[in-house]
Structures are given as C-alpha cells and as structure tokens.
Amino acid sequence: MSEKVSRRQFLNYTLTGVGGFMAAGMLMPLARFAIDPVLQKEEAGSLVQVGLLKDLTNEPKRFDFKVKQVDGWVKSDAPHSAWVYKDENGDIVALSPVCKHLGCTVGWNDNKEHPNQFFCPCHGGRYEKSGQNIKGTPPLAPLDQYQVKVEKDAFYLGKALPQGGK
Q: What is the distance between the alpha carbons of residues 48 and 84, in angstroms, rounded to a whole number?
C-alpha cells in the first residue's frame, strides 16, 4: 500500500531541502576560507641571502635579515637575526639569538663576568660559543642552529633547527 503525502508534509520536505541547500551554499565558502591556509603546502628549504663571506670571522657577528612569510592570507617580511661565525674548521655556524629559556634575545660577549659566551640578560642564561647551554643556568637546551648554504661569495640561511635533533 502506498501512503499519501499530505500537502503540509510535501511543503515541509520541500522547504527543508531548499533551506538545506541554501545553508550549504553559504557555509561551504566560509569553511573553505577558514581551512584553506591549512591545506597550503609549506615552501620547503627557502634560503635567504644574509651576508658576504668576507664579513665573517671566528668571532660571532650579528646579522639581521628578513624572511618572506605567509600567515593565512597576509604576506609580510618577518625580521630575523643570527649570530654567524666561522669555526676552527672554517665551517660557517649560524645560531639563533633566541634564548631557549623564555625567548629573550642573547648577546655575544656583552657580559664582563662571562666573557666569550652568549648571555641572556633576562634570567642569566649562558651558552658557549658553539651554542651549547651551560649547565646550572636557566636554559635547558642549546641555541637553535640555522641551515647554512654558501654560494659564490655570499652565505644563505634557511630554517633554524634545534641542535642535537631535539
């Protein structure tokens, strides 16, 4: 036996279906707008020219540079810094100036009580020239180290990665 659909039920089904399509039509672009940045692929390994090889010595020197950054739909140039020097083997070492304790900025050789060390003025954190944290001071991890690439007479820096793979 077939059941008859009343006029009231037919209108109810029709209006509910049309309303559902309209709601989906409005919500799908909004959902795509919110989720789209998550679906974008990250640019891997983008390196930025920071300085010239002739400017490097065995003493850490601070270099300031900008990295193109995309945050959602906002494109900007984000300022970064690095302490860069040549080690005893002639390899370039580039360390992040961000203290691993609370994110303050460390300085090189700017504390007379602790010469030839990176020093964080906020809480007394100290690091060796290699970026290794000194035991007994607040930071529990070494300074992050930038990826380095040399091309012709310039050096390029990439992402700052934790030392020791942690």
A: 14
